[in-house]
Amino acid sequence: MISRLGLLKRKEGMTQDEFQDYWLNVHGPIAKEMKNLRHYSQHVVCDNEHRHPLGQGPIVIDGYSELQFDSYGDMVEGVASLEGRGADDVPKFADPYNPILVCVKKMVRRTPQYLFKDDRNLIKRISFMGRADGVSAEEWQYQWWEVHSEMVHTMPGYAGYAQNLVIDRIVNGVSVPYEELPVEGVVEFWFENTDAFNECYDSPEFKRTSQHGSEFIGGINTYLTEVYDIL
């Protein structure tokens, strides 16, 4: 599954409520018409406190979209099918600089289906991660995709966990190198409630896992979001 993550900052002078209302009720119906689209969700930032021992990275957002496709080719065809209507609408509610991360998603622990009756009943934490100095993309992928994901299994409290490995970075419609948009992976965590959230991040297992992460992860940006499923 290919996930296309659009990173959004609200338009200057627009409140968070105005940004959210336009994105959901005006932009959402445009984007959901995209050909080949399997799933579309909007993730509105509700908490931007930095809850990680590693330093912050460069990703500053008020929300992000996730559009899922069966393949990269389906994604390209889907975006083209809107004939620019989606891109032309973005500046009406968001900063026109809205970089795109194209990812391969791996569900490490799938959240039980009964919890997804309403995503907004769950606490969702999203993290955008770069590489530590001197770590190659290949080594980063191995340590995160293989080793780190096994360590996460030992942590208590969380209901679901997904890894999104970045395979392309797009700015103004053009693929750019890592140095221009330094995100190598995106983590999604789901929690049933605040107690479960605190149990996870206060645990010694989390501290051990974070220590391992510090060996290959550079800057990291973390957010809590509310999820709105559009399609």
Short description:
The longest helix has 16 residues, at 16-31. Strands 1-3-2-9-5-8-6-4 form an 8-stranded antiparallel beta barrel, surrounded by 4 helices. By secondary structure, it is α+β, with helices and mostly antiparallel strands.
Anisotropy-based shape: globular
Which residues sit in consecutive blocks of at least 5 with pLDDT less than 50? Answer: none
> How large is the count of helical segments?
6
Strand order, main sheet: write it out.
1-3-2-9-5-8-6-4
- The proportion of residues forming helix, as a percent range, comes to 25-40%
Number of strands: 9
Strand content: 25-35%
| Pattern of helices and strands | EHEEHHEEHEEEHHE
Radius of gyration: 17 Å
Distance between the termini: 16 Å
Secondary-structure-based class equals: alpha+beta
Question: What would you note in describing this structure?
Answer:
With 231 residues, the protein is an alpha+beta fold. It has 6 helices and 9 strands. It has helices at residues 16-31, 72-81, 85-89, 137-152, 194-201, 204-213, and strands spanning 2-8, 39-47, 63-69, 100-109, 123-131, 160-171, 174-175, 185-191, 217-229. The protein has an 8-stranded antiparallel β-barrel with strand order 1-3-2-9-5-8-6-4, surrounded by 4 helices. α4 packs antiparallel against α6. It is globular and about 50 Å long. 35% of the residues are buried. The mean pLDDT is 93.
